[in-house]
Amino acid sequence: MRVLSANLGFPRMGANRELKRQVEAFWSGKVTDSALLKVVNELRKDHWVLQKNQLGLDIVPSNDFSLYDQVLDQAFTVGAIPKRYRDVFIKNDDLLPSALEGNMLSTYFAMARGYQQFPTEGSNLPVIDLEAMEMKKWFDTNYHYIVPEFDPTQQFKLTCNKFLEEYKQAKSFGIETRPVLIGPVSLLLLGKASPNSPADFAPIQLLERLLPVYEEIVKHLAEAGARSVQFDEPCLVQDLDSKISQSYHEAYSCLSMAAKKSSAEPIKIQLTTYFGNIVPNLAFIFPNLPIDGLHIDLVRAPQQFETVLSAAEKHPTLQLSIGIINGRNIWKTDLSAAFDMVKKAVAVLGTDRVIVTPSCSLLHTPHSLDAETELNPDVKDWLAFSVEKIKEIVLLTKAANNGIDSIKDELEANQRSIQTRRTSPKIHNPAVQERLKSIDHDMIRRRSTFDKRWEKQQEIFKLPDFPTTTIGSFPQTGEVRKARAAFKRGDISQEEYNKFINEEIKKCIQLQEKNDIDVIVHGEFERTDMVEFFGEHLEGYAFTKNGWVQSYGSRCVKPPIIYGDVYRPKPITVEVAKYAQSLTKKPLKGMLTGPVTMLQWSFVRDDQHHKPTTQQLALAIRDEVTDLEAAGINIIQIDEPALREGLPLRHSEWKEYLDWSVDCFLLASCSVADTTQIHTHMCYSDFYDIIDAISCMDADVITIENSRSDLKFLGAESFTYPNEIGPGIYDIHSPRIPSKEEMEHRLKEMLKRLKRNSIWVNPDCGLKTRKWNEVDLALKNMTEVAKKFRTMGYQV
Ligand code: MET
Ligand SMILES: [Zn+2]
Questions:
Q1: Is the CB of residue 642 below 6 angstroms from any atom belonging to ligand 1?
Q2: What is d(CA 495, CA 736) in angstroms, rounded to the nearest whole number?
């Protein structure tokens, strides 16, 4: 037998985001479900044909496709459909293992996105208002999954046969696939107890009840002729209670039995881990978890190679799938170095026990480089998206089987690209590197402690108690987007565009003054996106035309690429800030994106640690801060909404990350005088477990999302915060106008925990998704609440 090549999952959006378009058209009622499913079938077929017939991959995945999310698919498949959706959509006889169409499709999308029915008067249809299920970040990626809900009385039942239909569909095109499913233990660990469950209930207690459904899945696939099945168990790279080891044994013993019973040639079970090191949980797997294959991520955790290899060696039949092509980033692989790893695995295990693969599903990289006609050719030559990554896998497999000479030309070209990238002056900028060396302790500390700064700032700004402000952006209306597009196309000149933006700024400032907001913002109309805007003004960044990656459901993001040493050639926001300040006597807050967020929301360099890359970003922002201050902007906000996202998966690594990321924020913010007030802003996650690190950032003021998560932030028992803080008093994601009463209630809650003179009054996040009239009414209410608290002298 020879070394095989495999993929663990292919991006499902399609080369031109066909899936997004079609699903959204279905949601808005423009296409029927059968039209949707027809397009989806075509798309799946294209992806199989591409991987198998055009690129020559040995093992092609099926059921990696999803209309929304693969975790939701699996919960749905095993019948974990919360009662509130079941009650509305499902008649009992629906619950045969059926295809994802008709009523089942409506249920599925209601779970993903919520469902509302407000019948017109006189109709006897009931009012239905179902919220979507919770969404969470998929490990440390920017993909979000739907969190399954489990009830203590949960009954499982094979409800949906999508996994089988997809397998059969591929087979009907002559393509043998390996179905992918979320494994039973990770499915339960990733889920949560449904509301009102007893406090001691944990979904993993349901394992025994869940396993028969997985046995059925294995049986169906075996009967249909599948030779192997991939169970994803990414939880194995996390800190796990040793009791979970028992769960893994129970689960995989059961699945292995089912596989053995299944047919003359038992279907093989591959356990798949990714995003980290499994060595701390090695005892869960070795010596005797009854599996046929194991996948490990050797890009994120190369240090596990030796240990896992020698454990695998003792397991005489185990196939090891070595994830050596980065599924999370967009760089070309050094094929020579990767081939050394293949050789090493083959030397220990022999050719028939090694499979060459990407580190994880390719869901997290864009489709292909073909569409990138405008990228700088040097940079483009350093990149590999999903299609190119599969080509690399196929090449490495060929080299393993036929000798390295069989890929001589490709290897030479590859080594040339790798070498050029290593030495390119586009990437390596001696001045930037020198500057990094000059970072010293004084550069990452404010000149005085907060108390001293506070006194000086009080005197200058003379802000009232409960000062009001907003987070930065104001409505990005269709007009704003249109003007930007026209400018990009060259239909309007720079001057015309600037004039348009200046008018928006004027309107925005007038609205804030009318509503008596104390600290004014300019509205961020010139920005499409808070990371892209700054990236476009920095050296070392590249932008793709079509480098979309799924974020959640039909939503995709196009992360910019940091390819080289980063610096700021010239001021970015100073002119706009000066113009905005000239329109008001109140202090204007300059608005910047912080270095850690710039890093987290970009594709980043893999030729150096994240820390120096972030330090470079921090120095670029620091230059901007210094220039803003010199231009008379004395309040500057540096947003860090993504700080929490970068936390490593294992607790033991948190401190190292928090130390350097906090230092990078300090590096960006500490050039200023005591009299300059630094703000920061965070949102999108729970922050209380890193509140000490946030305090160390020493911003004079932090505004933080709080209402969406229903005061969770303040709920933590030990909550304290040393400087000033504005926990959001209303959720900006909804078009509804927040009432004064609800904002008063939130402010009163804050007063129980925080010093009266440390509280700011502001929304949860930026207002770019709202309409002007909504913003006007909401801010009016907000200021009235702040004023009431000032005069009534509330103190709890
Ligand atoms: C995701 S945080 C957004 C902060 C930014 N200043 C805004 O107001 O939109
Ligand atoms: Zn925000």
A1: no
A2: 37
Average pLDDT for 766-785: 96
pLDDT over 70, % of the chain: 98
pLDDT for residue 59: 98
pLDDT for 716 equals: 58
**Probe target for ligand 1 pocket from 142, 470, 473, 702, with the most ligand atoms within 8 Å of CB:** 473
- The contacts of residue 249 (CB under 8 Å, 6+ apart) are 284, 289
Q: Is 20 annotated as a binding residue?
A: yes
Instruction: Supply the residue whose CA is at minimum distance from atom 6 of ligand 1.
Output: 472
Task: Give the catalytic positions in this structure.
Answer: 733
Element (H or E) spanning 245, and its range? helix 243-262
Cα gap 11→5, rounded to integer Å = 18
> What is the pLDDT confidence band of residue 710, given thresholds at 50, 70 and 90?
low
Q: What is this structure's pTM?
A: 0.94
- Decide whether any atom of ligand 1 lies within 6 Å of the 681 Cβ: yes
ipTM comes to 0.99
Query: pLDDT, tens digit, for every residue of 147-179?
Result: 999 999 999 999 999 999 999 999 999 999 999
- The helix or strand, by DSSP H or E, that contains position 62, with its residue range, turns out to be strand 60-62
State the Rg of the chain over Cα. Answer: 28
pLDDT digits (tens, 9 = 90+) for 111-137: 999 888 888 888 888 888 888 898 888
* Domains parsed from the chain with CATH numbers: 431-475+508-529+572-791 (3.20.20.210)
**Dist. CA 72 → ligand 1 center (Å):** 29
- Are residues 559 and 602 in contact, defined by beta-carbon separation less than 8 angstroms? yes
Which two three-digit tokens encode residue 734? Answer: 């909804």
pLDDT surpassing 80 at residue 217: yes
Instruction: Classify burial at 328, counting beta carbons within 10 Å of its beta carbon; exposed 0-12, middle 13-18, buried 19 or more.
Output: buried
Q: Among residues 596, 469, 572, which one has the least CA distance to residue 523?
A: 469
765 is known to lie in a ligand binding site:
yes
Nearest CA to ligand 1 atom 2: 641
Give the H/E segment covering residue 354.
strand 354-358
The neighbouring-strand residues paired with 115 are: 130
What distance in angstroms lies between residue 474's CA and the mean position of ligand 1's atoms?
A: 10
Q: Residue 42 CB: number of other CB atoms within 10 A? A: 13
- The minimum-distance atom of ligand 1 relative to the CA of 766 is 8
Q: Is 422 annotated in some ligand binding site?
A: no
The tens digit of pLDDT for each residue in 598-635 reads 999 999 999 999 999 999 999 999 999 999 999 999 99
700 is in an annotated binding site: no
In short, whether 641's Cβ falls inside 6 Å of ligand 1 is yes
Residue 371 structure tokens: 């569409």
pLDDT score recorded for residue 712: 60
Residues 6+ apart with CB under 8 A from 476: 525, 768, 769
Which residue matches tokens 């080594």? Answer: 415
Q: List residues bridging with 295 in a β-sheet.
A: 272, 321
Residue 661, pLDDT above cutoff 80:
yes
473 lines ligand 1 (CB under 6 A): yes
Q: Is 472 in the pocket of ligand 1 (CB under 6 A)?
A: yes
| Ligand 1 centroid, distance to 473 Cα (angstroms) | 6
Q: Average the pLDDT over 241-258 and give the result.
A: 96
The protein residue with its alpha carbon nearest to ligand 1, atom 9, reads 766
Q: Is 792 left (phi over 0), alpha (psi -120 to 50) or beta?
A: alpha
CA separation for the pair 622, 628 (Å, rounded): 10
Ligand 1 atom at minimum distance from 593 CA: 6
Ligand 1 midpoint to CA 137 (Å): 19
Q: What are phi and psi of 86, to 5 degrees?
A: -55, -45
Tens digit of each residue's pLDDT (9 = 90 or more) over 435-485: 999 999 999 999 999 999 999 999 999 999 999 999 999 999 999 999 999
User: Is the CB of residue 493 less than 8 Å from the CB of residue 483?
Assistant: no
- Asked if residue 544 has pLDDT above 90, the reply is yes
% the chain with pLDDT above 90? 87
